[in-house]
Design goal:
With 179 residues, the chain is mostly beta strands. The protein has no helices and 9 strands. The chain has a 9-stranded antiparallel beta sheet with strand order 1-2-3-4-5-6-7-8-9, with no helix packed on it.
Length: 179
Amino acid sequence: PTRRSSDLAISSVLLNNIYGMLIVGGSWSEGGTSLGGVQLAGSDGNIFFINPGVGTTWVLGNVILDASASYLYQDSEVNTVAGVLPFVAQNEMGQVILEAGARYNISDSLYARVGLQYNNIVDEDFRAGIPLDKNWLQINSEIGVELTNGVDVYVGHAYDAGHNIFDTHTARAGISYSF
């Protein structure tokens, strides 16, 4: 059976692209999780990740195609409450990610993008007490506006298709700055 959950979190992420192929980053999140509409617990924690990979793009007029392969290593700690007792989940995970996407430049500043991502967990030490799905596809879409000076504003949606445990829809909105 599929479990339904909802998460609301505020996150900040810092990424750095080194030599065009190595992405190093970190994230902090504050939020909570509900399962079947019942609030399980508030949670806060931190995630460190490193994501080396290779990728390429092809520009065909207003269409930009992209493809990449990467390995995502995550080390996380989340503090929460299980019933009335404090609970700390410390997890490590390694994941192979294959991605392909297409972006269409609608105008000089407006764009739309769709993508497909294959996720395969190849190494995990997941001690949060819930089962993990080892592989699934993610279908994502995004629309954005490129502002001046390397600033983009975007909104998007992602769906984890074929996930055996969760029926996950993720709404995203953000601002990115490239320099």
